[in-house]
Amino acid sequence: MAMSDARPSSYEWTVGSAIGAAFSTVFGNLVPFVGLALLLGLPSLLLTLAGVTGIVKIVVDLVMGQVITITLIYGTVQSLRGSKVGIGDCLSQGFGRLPAAIGVAILAGLGIGVGMVLLIVPGLFLMTMWAVVIPSAVIEKTGIGASFTRSASLTEGRRWRVFGVIVVSWIVIMVITTGIAFALVGALGARNMAPVFIVMWIVGAFLQAYMSSLSGVLYTFLRRDKEGADIESIARVFD
Q1: Which helix (H) or strand (E) is 84 found in, with range?
Q2: Which of 123, 142, 175, 186 has its CA 20 to 30 A from that of 134?
Q3: Per-residue pLDDT tens for 206-221?
């Protein structure tokens, strides 16, 4: 993974500051962020409780997961700007920018998935290089191909930091979800899975809100770092 971090920063940020900003954004907007993730994650929960699996469940999870990300990127940028965030605003702005962004999200997911299956390292490299492909599509409306180019340009020279942010976040999420799932199954038993699914839906909504916010935070930090763009100029596209 040829990741260089040699270029001097005009805006100092670290793995810890990016993760901290994402958590602060979610906790500062807990009701709209987690509420939106719960609402959009409800179809997946209902399918799970109904015992629906296979391609239908996979497609619903994929699409709704990306809708959560796209809508909450708007919320994250607005929150970093110091503006009040509401569920209605997130939905209207997110759905207005959905078509190109959902295509970008699906292509990025397929590319990273193939890379992971092949040798893992190519998948990790693509995951890092395309870390801000969705916010690029949502905020700049660059189009599908240009969004990938834009993400590669923004992450260039900062990829070890971006990689660190993603990996640390994954580890935290795995520890949280695995620990809660095992505790619930141990307490309730494997035959009573409905309460487990419901609790994991709630936990998953918070974690999805965090990862969506993290995407917006990384994009904002990289724009400020590499281009000197302030939060007002970034958020102005939503006005």
Answers
A1: none
A2: 175
A3: 999 999 999 999 999 9
Cα–Cα distance, 172 to 126 (Å, whole number): 21
Assigned token pair, 53: 């699996």
Q: Which stretch, 111-115, 175-179, 234-238, has highest mean pLDDT?
A: 175-179
Instruction: Give residue limits of the domains in the chain.
Output: 15-97+157-227
Tokens 């110091």 found at: 82
- CA dist 182 and 205 (Å) reads 18
Helix extents (H) in 81-158? 87-96, 98-118, 121-129, 133-140, 144-155
Burial of 206 (0-12, 13-18, 19+ CB in 10 A): middle
**CA-wise closest residue to 226 among 5, 19, 22, 23:** 5
At which residue do the structure tokens 């990127």 appear?
73
| Amino acid present at 47 | L
| CB burial string 55-74: b at 16+ within 10 A, e below | eebeebeebbbbbbbbbbbb
